[in-house]
Design brief:
By secondary structure, this protein is of the alpha/beta class. It has one domain: 3-Layer(aba) Sandwich (Rossmann fold), CATH 3.40.50. It contains nine helices and ten strands. A hairpin with a 2-residue loop joins strand 6 and strand 7. The two termini are 31 Å apart. The relative contact order is 0.15.
Length: 222
């Protein structure tokens, strides 16, 4: 399977690229608005994985070209770039492409980080409104600490909450999540539950910042 990580040069994109490159045999496509930056980062990820004895295929492209080649497209971009990114790749998507949104809207003040819920109800709802109607959207990978994800020496046991209206698409994304060692996908229903999932991320950041030895803080439901 080909997985495109749009914004794959950023923190969460790097973490997912390295983990899938390390734990699976999928082809990873790094997308960016700057194709040269995408190619440079892809080479860096390959070098890191080869240093650990892992051979994988990671290539860099401009976002639309990455999306055009992929079976699953992960929108690993900040929430404020999400709609523009979806609109820029819309003509490269079809009903056989799964769109995945891990984006969370946040704002910060003197008290810490807070969920910045958009008027549409959630960041995932913004993606749903911007995408073509026949392209399934799944929310996943919101509450993962990017640093711990990208550190391949870091072992973890985290859950990722998965939501969406298309059960087959949710199943595929859950399988992809399960391939990352230590990551467990949990189905939390449809798109209407996106705000509850997205709002966990600023809470985790605040807990991590206020407590020692909790830098790479994830969620585990027991």
């Amino acid at each position: 399977m080909r997985i495109a990580l749009l914004g794959g040069t950023g923190d969460i994109g790097q973490g997912l690229a390295l983990r899938w490159g390390y734990d699976s045999s999928h082809e990873i496509l790094i997308g960016s608005r700057d194709p040269e930056r995408a190619r440079t980062k892809a080479e860096e990820y390959v070098t890191e994985l080869e240093s650990r004895g892992t051979e994988t295929t990671i290539k860099g492209f401009e976002n639309a070209m990455a999306a055009d080649r992929a079976d699953v497209v992960v929108l690993a971009v900040p929430a404020y770039h999400l709609v523009d990114t979806v609109e820029a790749i819309a003509d490269r998507l079809d009903d056989e492409t799964i769109l995945v949104s891990p984006a969370v809207g946040m704002k910060r003040d003197d008290d810490g980080f807070h969920y910045n819920r958009p008027g549409a109800g959630s960041v995932a709802a913004l993606a749903a409104d911007a995408k073509p109607d026949d392209v399934p959207l799944v929310g996943a990978f919101h509450n993962l600490p990017a640093g711990g994800l990208a550190d391949l020496d870091h072992d973890f046991e985290w859950d990722t909450l998965v939501f969406g209206e298309d059960e087959d698409a949710k199943g595929i994304v859950s399988d992809l999540a399960r391939e990352i060692e230590g990551l467990r996908p949990l189905d939390v229903g449809g798109l209407a539950n996106a705000p509850e999932v997205e709002s966990i991320t600023p809470l985790l950041i605040n807990v991590a910042s206020e407590n020692e030895r909790m830098h790479d803080l994830g969620v585990k439901f027991q």
